[in-house]
């Protein structure tokens, strides 16, 4: 298996960040299938598009700002290994960067990390709130399924634009803050970034469903919704959040078989690099 091009150590012990692929879509109800192909595809595209060969040597197209971090790519794991492996990762205070797979994987990651970290501030980038409570343990009920491990007052959802009524009722009931693409349009990206940073606690977990981004930038997702974030705004927010420091991040729902010229996998690779390089920088 190829490693993501941002990985620079084979030694788990010395790494600060750990990349883990979870190629599983067994709890998705989406009509589009294929998110299980994303971890390997994103790694492959990272090596093709984010590196350059100069006189026989490979160099990375690194982000413009920030510094390199020690990154280890653990390869792919099965869904039923999450508790064991993420227990080990969080016990050693390493920061997991997970690549799905369907979004329900986030439930298992947060509920495992919640055994070490209390009051997790969840930053949930998504077109969908995933706050269904009438059905649980699938890709549409993630926020409901992690409620006991997050601090909802310091959590936020970004990019939401197609909630079900049941989800609107839950958002209201729990007083969860929502930032829609129209809010960003109206207030400006810098103001939105500042208000998010002021709201978050010191244990921040970022879950990034690629469908928060507009389908023109990210066509290869399992449930595309028009009128999303542009890629620069999404990454600007991610970087501003990462600068404060995060305990973990995931990038979910990339669906390579519906992509256009691997555009979405390339964006996913760039997002991982920008978060890695920005992390803890301010
Ligand atoms: Mn979604």
Could you characterize what this model shows?
- There is one protein chain.
- The protein has one domain (17-278): 3-Layer(aba) Sandwich (Arginase, Chain A).
- It is 33% helix and 16% strand.
- It has 9 helices and 10 strands.
- It has helices spanning 38-49, 82-91, 105-113, 142-145, 165-174, 181-187, 189-199, 231-244, 263-278; strands at 17-21, 51-54, 57-60, 71-76, 95-99, 121-125, 156-158, 177-179, 204-209, 248-252.
- The strands form 2 sheets. The protein has an 8-stranded parallel sheet with strand order 4-1-5-10-9-6-7-8, sandwiched between helices.
- Helix 4 links the parallel strand 6 and strand 7.
- The radius of gyration is 17 Å and the shape is globular.
- The model has no long low-confidence stretch (mean pLDDT 97).
- Bound molecules: manganese (II) ion.
- Manganese (II) ion binds at residues 126-128, 209, 211, 223, 253.
Short account of what is shown:
This protein is 33% helix and 16% strand.
Q: Give the amount of beta strand, in percent.
A: 15-25%
Number of H/I helices: 9
Bound compounds, each kind once, are: manganese (II) ion
Q: What integer value in Å does the Rg equal?
A: 17 Å
- Report the helical percentage: 25-40%
CATH class: Alpha Beta
- Give the averaged pLDDT, no decimals: 97
Oligomer: single chain
Compute the number of structural domains: 1
Going by CATH, what is the homologous superfamily?
Ureohydrolase domain
N-end to C-end Cα span: 34 Å
**SSE-based structural type:** alpha/beta
| Run of helices and strands | EHEEEHEHEHEHEHHEHEH
